[in-house]
TrEMBL record:
Taxonomic superkingdom: Bacteria
Pfam families listed in its UniProt record: LacI, Peripla_BP_3
Ranges for domain HTH lacI-type: 2-56
Keywords for the protein's UniProt record, in alphabetical order: DNA-binding, Transcription, Transcription regulation
InterPro entries: HTH_LacI, LacI/GalR-like_sensor, Lambda_DNA-bd_dom_sf, Peripla_BP_I
Listed SMART domains: HTH_LACI (SM00354)
The protein's name in its UniProt record: DNA-binding LacI/PurR family transcriptional regulator
Molecular function (Gene Ontology), one example: transcription cis-regulatory region binding
Length: 327
């Protein structure tokens, strides 16, 4: 394996000059830089990134902890965080917890400065005592209610859900159901609150269907139960796009036209929501902005060593109106 000295001998420069080129320092004569780069290519030299990061006082990694990568929202979010982290020369280590409290607690507890520089965590089941003193800077995502002095990035789920339901009300729908009630998910609690606000403001009756998980099959199961009731809904708001697409499938199988007979809206604006038939009306969080904000907060605390009060960053959202609610 080639060393810095081997590269320096071939290039006819000092080891220090080679080190400066490898580490990206600007103040190297153009001719020397060219000779070093040619020698690097010729020898196949690869820097020891671990040693370099240790000298800089960083690991070169951050952690991303999410419930399920099989849910498209978290897969797309992970892609955004990886892109944002790369701008800071970070690689991302990803852990999924399945929303299990013991697993979430263990993953977060095991985080330390010997492994990562910081962590971005989307919690579902942990309680404050589980992550009261993390070993590295932690940024929380989503709306799991954790009263902790940690940075948080998310959208206003109450207002977003209220916006979606008001859209259905404005279309003249009067029997508006919701799919996604869950006993522990913080996002479910807030989206249900937004649904209830809109329903109360319109003087309508709540129609609530639970979902223990947020997959297509859970949406299909909840929709089946709703359609089996004596009076079926004429609109359904689902807490994510997977639930909504499961509901669309059941409506189709029952011979119902979407949106003519029943309008359906989702949440997350995952890529496949724009390409389903019908395309899905959905709440669209700015996932790229969320990823950048979370990574930037980790960088400010872990690398820039800034000391500032915990931040609560609200990311914008939009209602994407598509075929599933408007013919």
């Amino acid at each position: 394996m080639a060393t810095l000295k081997d590269v320096a001998v071939l290039a006819g420069v000092s080891v220090k000059t080679v080190s400066n080129v490898v580490n990206g320092y600007e103040f190297v004569k153009p001719e020397n830089r060219r000779r070093v780069e040619d020698a690097l290519n010729a020898t196949g030299y690869r820097p020891n990134l671990g040693a370099r990061n240790l000298r800089r006082g960083r690991t070169g990694f951050i952690a991303l902890v999410v419930p399920e990568l099989s849910i498209p929202y978290f897969g797309e979010l992970a892609g955004g965080i990886i892109a944002a982290a790369a701008e800071h020369d970070w690689s991302v280590l990803i852990e999924q917890t399945q929303g299990d409290r013991a697993r979430e607690r263990k993953v977060i507890t095991d985080l330390g400065p010997h492994m990562v520089d910081g962590a971005i965590v989307s919690p579902q089941a942990v309680v404050p005592d589980d992550i009261a003193t993390p070993g590295v800077p932690v940024v929380l995502l989503g709306e799991h209610p954790l009263p902790l002095p940690l940075d948080h990035v998310g959208i206003d789920n109450v207002t977003a859900a209220r916006t979606a339901v008001h859209h259905l009300i404005d279309l003249g729908r009067t029997r508006i159901a919701v799919i996604g009630q869950h006993p522990t998910r913080g996002t479910a609690t807030q989206r249900l609150a937004g649904y209830r606000q809109a329903i109360a403001e319109a003087g309508l009756t709540e129609i609530v269907a639970p979902a223990l998980r947020y997959h297509h099959s859970d949406g299909a199961l909840a929709m089946t139960e709703l359609l089996d009731r004596p009076e079926r809904p004429d609109a359904v708001f689902c807490f994510n796009d997977m639930l909504a697409l499961g509901a669309v499938r059941v409506a189709h199988d029952r011979g119902l036209r979407v949106p003519d007979d029943i309008a359906i809206a989702g949440f997350d604006n995952t890529e496949h929501s724009a390409y389903s038939v019908p395309s899905l009306t959905t709440i669209a969080p700015d996932k790229a902005a969320l990823a950048r904000a979370a990574v930037d907060l980790v960088h400010r605390r872990a690398i820039d060593k800034e000391d500032f009060p915990p931040q609560d960053v609200s990311i914008p959202f939009a209602l994407e109106v598509r075929e599933s609610t408007t013919p």
